[in-house]
């Protein structure tokens, strides 16, 4: 049972999507042998891990436990299946396109969370994360256009 007067469910969903994003970038690094892309993917992993770390205290206060799940997010599983199952002659572009979709989902979950009534510090943290994740999205969008 939640310990606060706030609905933290959207925040938990966001953390699941971020956890899924870390998993996907890690998987993409294994599948693509491109040092330049791996460096970009490492930046994305670090950004998402930092966002998760920034959000966990709010979930912890609400629930008393850290959110570690990524598998229950249906949207992420669908994106993962699409990512792995897609056969393409241009693997880099395929991965980048799918990862850009993951970035879209991250931003959508942030927006959904921001529409809720949240503690001031939580909302401030979310706005900071939104700015950082928008940067990640824009970078993946640019890579997507460059590899098209």
Please write out the topology.
Elements: H1 9-31, H2 35-63, H3 74-85, H4 91-114, H5 120-147
Helix pairs in contact: 1-2, 1-3, 1-4, 2-5, 3-4, 4-5
Report on the architecture of this protein.
The protein is mainly α and 148 residues long. The chain has one domain: Ferritin, core subunit, four-helix bundle (Ferritin). 78% of the residues lie in helices and 0% in strands. Helix 1 runs parallel beside helix 3, helix 2 runs antiparallel to helix 5 and helix 4 packs antiparallel against helix 5. The radius of gyration is 16 Å and the shape is elongated. The N and C termini lie far apart (48 Å). The model has no long low-confidence stretch (mean pLDDT 83).
In short:
This protein is mainly alpha-helical and 148 residues long. 78% of the residues lie in helices and 0% in strands. The chain has one domain (9-64, 71-147): Ferritin (Up-down Bundle).
Instruction: Please write the string of helix (H) and strand (E) elements.
Output: HHHHH
CATH architecture: Up-down Bundle
Number of domains: 1
Return the average pLDDT rounded to an integer.
Answer: 83
State the secondary-structure class.
mainly alpha
Number of strands: 0
Largest sheet geometry: none
| CATH T-level fold name | Ferritin
Give the proportion of residues in helices: over 70%
Roughly what fraction of the amino acids lie in strands? under 5%
User: What spatial form do the alpha-carbon principal axes imply?
Assistant: elongated
Q: What is Rg?
A: 16 Å
The count of helical stretches stands at 5
CATH classification, class level: Mainly Alpha
Q: Tell me the name of the CATH homologous superfamily.
A: Ferritin, core subunit, four-helix bundle
| Unreliable residue stretches | none
Distance between the termini: 48 Å
